[in-house]
Amino acid sequence: MAKQTAKATAPATLLVELLTEELPPKALRSLSEAFARVLTEDLKHDEFREPDSEVAPYATPRRLALRITRVRDRAPDKRVESSGPSVKAALDATGQPTPALLGFARKHGVEVGKLTRRQTPKGEFFFCTATAKGGHLDAGLALRVGAALEALPIPKLMRWGSGKQQFVRPVHGLVMLHGSREISGNVLGAESSTRTPGHRFLSASAIALKQADDYERMLREQGKVIVDFAARRTLVIKALEDAAGQGAALVADDALLDEITALVEWPAVYAGEFGREFLDVPEECLVLAMQRHQKYVPLRDKQTGRLLPRFLFVSNLETKQPREIIHGNERVLRARLADAKFFYDQDRKTRLEARVPRLAAVVYHGKLGSQLERIERIQLVAGKIAHGIGADPLLTGRAAWLSKADLLTEMVGEFPELQGTMGRYYAIHDGEPTAAADAIEAHYRPRFAGDALPGEPIGMALALADKLDALAGMFGIRQIPTGDRDPFGLRRAALGVIRILIERELPLSIHDLIDEAFRGYDGKFGGAHTDLETFIRDRLSGYLRDRGYSALEVDSVLGAEHYRITDTMRQLEAVRAFAKLPEAESLAAANKRVVNILKQAAAKGESFAAVDSDKLKEPAERELYSALAITAGNAKGLYQRGDFTGFLKTLAVLKAPVDAFFDSVMVMVDDPELRQNRLALLDKLRNEMNRVADLSKLAA
User: Can you tell me the distance from the alpha carbon of 611 to that of 676, in angstroms, rounded to the nearest whole number?
Assistant: First the structure.
């Protein structure tokens, strides 16, 4: 009796849930999204998912899960076609199969007569067509889940128990349910089941899941768990806004709201208060104490913009009698704020300038000296920059001298994120000029992508000097970023330099700035200059592409012999305008030809200096020389005024003489004087055309 093959059932919803100990709250959302993406792509690749299948990722403090609708329990069969030998090799002179064809048929388990012949671009070949049976979902689901978990972006893994399993947190349970059917399997030491725990305190017992589609509803109704991260986050925000009332605004960014959402399964919002005396402390300290340490949400008066002596917090425990919970959180916060007030009061007893000499005992880097030595280097570079951008050099020097003094304060020791911010407050308290105090805070900007830039020239000069000193020093001791590793934030520093120069339109040369930064190290690291300039150029290239310019446009501008970062945006706009000219394609192609000729000539040892007009024999080369002289004269003023678009447009008149030159003039002739003179003419043409951008890079 023939064995019957199990029939595939209708597509059903697939539920996969991994139960763990408390997951890292800052990473929970990204872990959930990555888990869902990897597993669903795997199932889609092997055609287990129907085209209209929908995916819902879930995440709570103790679980990662996803629900995928319309998943097949067996993938469809596939038609597989294998190419065999060519007809010439497969059949002998009498038309009989050769060993090559017989072997191909035997390999695929078919008779020669079942093979097909088809014409291809390489000739006629034999083919074997077969049907590959689709795989079963049950057979490999546990392996797929395990592979998806291994692919998660987890920087540090943990082990638990006596096994060898590793994950971001110990794993305690697994659910794999297809429709109403449990799928057996083991992932990270956990055997699959249909039972899942509810809320740690509000749920009486584990929940027995009967249908994958009921997962979210049953956990909400029976388990007091809102598994949908986005839905839980929306609920948290609404509850916070309701508790804040009409006159108060929440002081919470997306990162804090994500972290709060990741800490609770069934959010309950409560309000607390703290003493008004703490409002005398700078609000940055209060906000940081509430947000970073306690995950509280400060409140700001919508009319005055000042902090209110109230705060909100999200608890994982809903109760009708929250008084003890509120009082407990108020006590904790009062202690935190009392510490902050004590630090603030104590710090103001010592002037910033009195702290500066003590920076000699604070190591900046073992190979780069102390923080005091760093301040002295920054002061020199900032002074040079100040002269170049019209900033007050005396105030710039004063701001530089005090810029790192707050590193020795109690407040910055407790809250390192406040360096610069507290320096400004303490400088104002000490009676320092406001412009210098503002620069102390501004010189750390931009701290992150999209952050505001220093607004005043003193702050710009100090910010550039600070970042350039760090870049020069770290490159000098070969602490260069590699791959994903950038422990000293050098990519951020380079991008900060670029943004300040471009967005504040500072007329400074990056080459000269780097020279000045390395000069502070007494020439010890001169060999790193080129590496640092290339590093900044690469960051500039990425910055410009992010602004919407193409790789060709960016490469052409940065490929010019001399470019100034401040001018690159206008140069790119000029390149775009030039590319629209009817003559652009021909001139770019000619420029590329010129560059190649000169490169090959230089490789052969050819030398070409100034053009000798008396040695121009052919009418076409005399015409090109004359047209180039006139065009260069007309364009010179435009270039000097920064009208790069106008400059490139004047080059359009060179199309006809350039085309005529290449049509009728041989450059690499035997006569050495004639050859070198023509190379010199082409060199002059290249230099004039490529002042704004290397147009050869625009050629197809």
Answer: 9
Rounded Cα gap, residues 291 and 494, in angstroms: 30
User: 75 with 138: CB under 8 angstroms?
Assistant: no
Q: Determine the Cα–Cα distance for residues 263 and 310; give it in Å rounded to an integer.
A: 22
Which three-class secondary structure state does DSSP give residue 339? helix
Residue-wise DSSP of 612-629: -GGG--SHHHHHHHHHHH
- Rounded Cα distance, 278 and 396, in Å: 33
Residue 1 pLDDT > 60, yes or no?
A: no
Nearest partner of 11 among 137, 132, 134, judged by Cα = 137
Place of tokens 């009418």: 619
- How confident is the model over 301-326, as pLDDT tens digits? 999 999 999 999 999 999 999 999 99
Residues 645, 577: contact at Cβ < 8 Å? yes
Nearest to 77 by CA among 46, 35, 41, 40: 46
Listed residue (230, 218, 290, 223) closest to 262, CA to CA: 230
DSSP assigned state of 403: T
CA distances from 515 to 360, 405, 476, 511, 512 (A): 25, 27, 12, 6, 5
Question: How many CA atoms, within 13 angstroms, populate the side-chain half-sphere of residue 358?
Answer: 11
Average pLDDT over all residues of the chain: 93
Which DSSP category does 477 fall into?
A: T
Q: What is the pTM of this model?
A: 0.81
